[in-house]
Known about the structure:
Radius of gyration: 18 Å
Distance between the termini: 29 Å
Shape: globular
Number of strands: 14
Order of helices and strands: EHEHEEHEHEEEEEEEEE
Strand order of the largest sheet: 4-3-2-1-5-6-7-14-9-12
Structural class: alpha/beta
Strand content: 35-45%
Amino acid sequence: MKCYIIAGAPSPDIEFIRNEIPQNAFVLCADRGYSYAKAAGVSPSVIIGDFDSCADALPDTAETITLQREKLYTDTVHCIDNALQKGYDEMVVLAATGGRLDHTVANLYALEYAGSRGGSVTLLSEREEIRLLTEGKHSFEGMDGLTFSLFPLGCGSVTLSIKGAHYPLDNYVYESRNPVGVSNIFEGERCEIEVHSGKLLMIINRDDR
């Protein structure tokens, strides 16, 4: 099942959030994410945080979980855990990038966190789509001309093959110390990336359209 999480990165595109979340979707908010949901006219089902950054009064209609300020995991990761516990294995996280670099990096590693627990997370903004590619074949359609970048995540190297891109690869060993996966380009109607071993962080630049 699919759900949406609104995180708390500063200055998100409220119109994008409004348009991206379908009506009647299950929505969780991480702290200040509730302020963005309210501005977008989105009614969340769950609000989680220590509420150090949310100035809005919380609604009675949502399940509210108040966290300690000193805690092991971020508010966003707590939302991911809550979604997994409720049976949601596909999560789209909005307002997750563009703020403090350490917060953005933590959200990037949240992809691996969710993956290790049987979930799939996509970080989505008007500018980019970020996902984790694990071992196996991954197909992308209708993205001709968009750029994408790949980086090993949580491993020293990744062995991969790419078809349907400007820079194809065949069983290439991609070492994390050598970031050569920047700015590839989808070509044609279908691109296939096969991860033979390891895990890849994938960033698709949506604003190339």
